[in-house]
Structure formats: C-alpha cells, structure tokens
Give the backbone structure.
Amino acid sequence: MRILLFVCLFWSILGCKNPSNSGPGQTAGEPTPPVLSARPELPDWAKNAVLYELNIRQFSPDGNFNGVTRELPRLKDLGIDIVWLMPIHPIGKERRKGTLGSPYSVVDFKAVNPDFGTEDDLRNLVQKAHELGLKVILDWVPNHTSWDAVWKKEHPEYYTKYNGDFTVPINEHGKPINDWSDICDLDYNNPETRKAMIDAMQYWVRRCDIDGFRCDMAGLVPNDFWASVRPALDTVKPMFMLSEWQDEPQHFNSCFQANYGWKWKDITKDIWTGKQDAQALDTLLRFLNDFYPETYSQLYFTQNHDENSWSGTETELYGNSAEVMNVLAWTWQGLPMIYCGQEDGLNRRLKFFDRDPIRWKKYGRTGFFQRLNDLKHNNQAIWTGKYGGELVKFASSDEQNIYAFGREKNNDKVIVIANLSKFSKTVTVQPDADFEGAYANVFGSNTMQVTKEMQISLKAWEYLVLTNK
C-alpha cells in the first residue's frame, strides 16, 4: 500500500508520460502507473550475468566511445553480458585534479565529454552492444557535481550549504569530505533537485536506450529518493540498478537489485596477507544473510577503478591468490565483474586524472575468464543470489585453510574446493550426500567421482571446480 500511494504521488508531481499506447478504459495521453513488485527483481538477463567495468579514457588508444565500440565483439567473445561505462559527462575545470580531472566531477548531466565523442557516438555504441546481445549501464554520480557545473550556475538552490556556503560532499556522519575538493554537494532536501536528477537519468534511457545505472556513493543520497527513481525509470524501461554502497539494506527494498561486496573484497585480501583465514568467509556469509533481505545480490571483484588506481594492482593486492579469489567471485553467490585489462593480466596502476591507456598485449587470461563465464551462464547452481543454489559448506580436515562448498539449483550442481593458504595441503573433504556423483573438471579434461569422503591434494592457492553438466 505504501509503495502504491508513493507511486501515485510521484506521478502527480512529475507528470511523467508513458511512451506506450493507452490501455482499455484509459484516456489517450494519460500516464499508466508502473506495475512494481514488492521488491526490485533482477532482470532475467542479469540473473547469470558477468559485468565488465570499462574506463573509457584508458580502454583504447583512442580513449573515446568509438574505441569502445570497436572492441565490443571481443568482449562478447570473452563472455561479458553487461558493459559498465565509467562517467560519460563533461568534467569540471574549477578545482580540477590532474590534467583531465576526475570523471566523477560532472559539469552537465545531459551532455557527453567531448573527449569521448558525441551523443550519436554513444548511441551507436549502445546500439552495437544490443545487436551483440550485450547490455550497457552508465556510471551515475547523484551526490555531487563539479564546482563549475551548469546546475550550480543556473540553480544554486540545488546545492547543500554548510556554515552558509557551498561545500564539498558531506559524509554519512555529517562532516565534509575535504579530500574530495573538486566536487560540490547536492541538497536532496530540495524537491527540485530530486526532480532534476530523475529527469537527467530518464534522459539517457530515452535518448540512448541504456539498460541501467551503477550509482556512485548511493548511500550519501536519501533512500526515499531512490524509491522515487525506480518507478520513474520503469515507466520508460525496466532498469538494472547497482548501488555502490554496502551499509543500507533498504536499498534492496527501494530501487537496487545489487550492491557492492566491499566486505568480501576486504576479507579476500586479508586471506592473502594472512590476516584472516578461510573461516572468515563463513562468518561473512552469515552476516550478509542476516543483514540483507532475502533478495540481495552483491557485486564481487578483485579489481575496479578505485582499487587499481589507489590501492594496487591485482598482483599487489592478491599475489598468487588472484586466480582462486576470482573463482570464488564467480561461484560463491554474487555477481562477478572484470575490470578492463584484467583479461590481459594488467599489472599497472592506471592514472586516474590523466590519460594513461592500457598497453594491451595478448589477452593472456581470456581463457581463464571464458571458462568461468561459460560456467556462470550455463549452470544455474551459480547464478546470482537467490537465482542460484544455496551455498552448502562441506566439512574438511582443515577448516582454516580449505574452503569447500557446493551449490545446486534445478539439478545443476557445482562444487568448489579451494586451498586458501600459501602451503600445499592434503585434506579430507566430506561433501553432502546430495552432491555425490560424477563431475567434469572445469579447469581440466578429467572427470571426477565425488564421494562422501574424499582425499584431495592442492598446491598453495590451488582450486578445483567441478560441474555436473
């Protein structure tokens, strides 16, 4: 009832139009309120999807939309389903960092960065992606703009005042984030700010047929705003919505189908450095299942633009454990992601405020990711969240170092046995009876018979991935 009342109020305020024809008993031109489920649900095409974060500035020698479009067939062959484009908008010059500035310092939400090309170039990119069966989502920056933004000049009332003046973004504790000096905070207490932001998001769905948004710092924006975003966008086209935030479980009730698995990222890095062991994943899973609604899904990755530029390369952060942690990202329970360059073994921190193109070589890790992507697509056991099978932990003789589990959905089964330590291990693993039977080795040519008690030998950071189909 609360959702229905809100949708009706929202429609009366925004006066949105439904692009479809009017239905029976409906006057032509009247908006049709969207039919919303109790909670946001992943689109069918996202339930077994793999994301690819694409840094437009660094992805190709061109550093533009056309450089991305040219590589779409390769990404399709890699097994990607969703291409996430980092922010596409013009970048502020006032208080700019570096020579080109941060893509997250937005001048105009309804324009494209001229360094990347034109709106027609973006539209062509999305069209070519759709022809290949790929989806495209935009990185959206709702919390702030650049200091020289169009809105700041034309609508200063859209902005937060702190001690009587414009301010850098305010954190969740009400304090300015001073090292974010190149951006200016938006005020969501003003209904006109909300209306303008929703209008800007709808603009790209209508103009370029994009398929969703990855929403930057989503938790710094009130959740009741996100509850209004969902019906507004769904009137144009159902969206895939990803929140870059982990501390607001109500995001899954308002707008978002997935959020960031920051805790997973931190724990897997700690396992590599020895600060935590395999049992930390059990603790994490219990926490997530208690903290979030049943419908939650999380994005898992070993690299993204922040990790790569500011924390370290995959080798720096994960060392010899990188492959096994990616195996977990694909099979544990989440929505997996590749950051541009990982399929080539990128081992360099890309500059964030300057041009620093990836120096592509021979795409040496393509085969590794293709096998994981094929498994994700074709075995429902490891589909994302509730759309896959429940994770069933297997007992082993070394719980601190060996992480063994199975997942099953509609008779599809996957078993993962991983050595999360720097030492070779020979252990006894006891799969549940439901998982006994013959399996193919995803990363080998052999088959294995899974029994109720198995002795397994694994080298440091080695893994075994088995599938029954």
About this structure: Residues 1-35 have pLDDT under 50 and may be disordered. The radius of gyration is 23 Å. The CA atoms of residues 49 and 81 lie 5 Å apart. Residues 32-387 form a domain with the TIM Barrel fold (CATH 3.20.20.80).
